[in-house]
Amino acid sequence: MSNKKTKKEMFNEILAIVKDNEELGDFIKHEIELLDKKSANKRATKTQTENIGYKAEIKSVLTENGATVTEIQGKSEILAGLSNQRVSALLRQMVESGEVIKTVDKKKSYFAIATVEGD
């Protein structure tokens, strides 16, 4: 994972450095406003919207015992139409967000719903 800073973070750092220069400060504040407007107008793409539905379907077919990508696709007509790579990518995103856990047994990956302690 990279520690790259966003444009907004960089502009805020520059703003702190040039605080004595009103003209530069105004310019940077304007750039930050433009970035805020741009991010406020962003909508999810068609693929991102579809992926939300696919992730919900993955959660509905997953068990606490765990299942492989192929098993997950076999339990759902919706997911069966997707490539193995796409389902794997969605599962990787879900693992990163903590919704799903991944375990590896003899080079085979199993995915299961992440449970909250105390459930």
Structure characterization notes:
With 119 residues, this protein is mainly alpha-helical. It folds into 2 domains: 7-40; 46-113, Arc Repressor Mutant, subunit A, CATH 1.10.10.10. Helix content is 59%, strand content 10%. It is built from 6 helices and 2 strands. The protein has a two-stranded antiparallel ribbon.
Give the end-to-end Cα distance, rounded to a whole number of Å: 31 Å
Determine the CATH topology of the largest domain: Arc Repressor Mutant, subunit A
β-strand amount: 5-15%
Order of the strands making up the biggest sheet: 1-2
CA-based gyration radius: 21 Å
Average pLDDT reading: 87
Number of helices: 6
CATH H-level homologous superfamily name of the largest domain:
Winged helix-like DNA-binding domain superfamily/Winged helix DNA-binding domain
Major sheet attributes: 2 strands, antiparallel
Low-pLDDT segments, ≥5 res: none
Helix content: 55-70%
**CATH level 1 name of the largest domain:** Mainly Alpha
Structural class: mainly alpha
Which architecture of the largest domain does the CATH hierarchy give at level 2?
A: Orthogonal Bundle
The number of strands is 2
Backbone shape: elongated
Order of helices and strands: HHHHHHEE
Number of domains: 2
